[in-house]
Amino acid sequence: MTNHLISLGIQIVPKSKVQATYDLVDHAIEVIQKSGIKHQITPFETVMEGHYDELMKIAKEAEEAVLANGADEFLVYYRIHYRKDADVTFEEKRLDR
Fold first, then answer.
1. Residue 94 pLDDT level (bands cut at 50, 70, 90)
2. Among 40, 41, 47, 84, which one has the highest count of C-beta atoms within 10 angstroms of its own C-beta?
3. DSSP letter for each residue of 44-81
4. DSSP state at residue 86
5. Which candidate, 95, 90, 97, places its Cα nearest to that of 39?
């Protein structure tokens, strides 16, 4: 892996017998927001920009927050945009260009 910026989309789908799904997802989003990493929340996933190892650490913490707050289990889906020799940034993906 290189030390370039990547985009990582994460969707955590928690399951619980006692907690509401959206409430559990909010705990994961809170971890991402508190990390200070550049991110964008969408209706289906949260996309982060940063270095691979840093983003995977934040993703793991978000998963752990879901479990710690009442999830019995979860599904997690990642989408990663990675380039071998260059950064991947939010700015290059703007729709208004």
1. confident
2. 47
3. S-EEEEEEHHHHHHHHHHHHHHHHHTT-SEEEEEEEEE
4. S
5. 90
Contact (CB, 8 A) for 55 and 6: yes
Answer whether 0.90 is exceeded by the pTM.
yes
Q: Which two tokens stand for residue 75?
A: 């599904």
Q: How many Å apart are CA 79 and CA 93, to the nearest integer?
A: 15
| Overall average pLDDT of the 28-38 stretch | 98
Domain covering 5-86 in this structure, CATH number? 3.30.70.930
- The residue whose two tokens read 């509401």 is 20
57-88 per-residue burial string, b: 16 or more CB within 10 A, e: under 16: ebbeebbebbeebebeebeeeeeeeeeeeeeb
Nearest to 6 by CA among 85, 94, 75, 95: 85
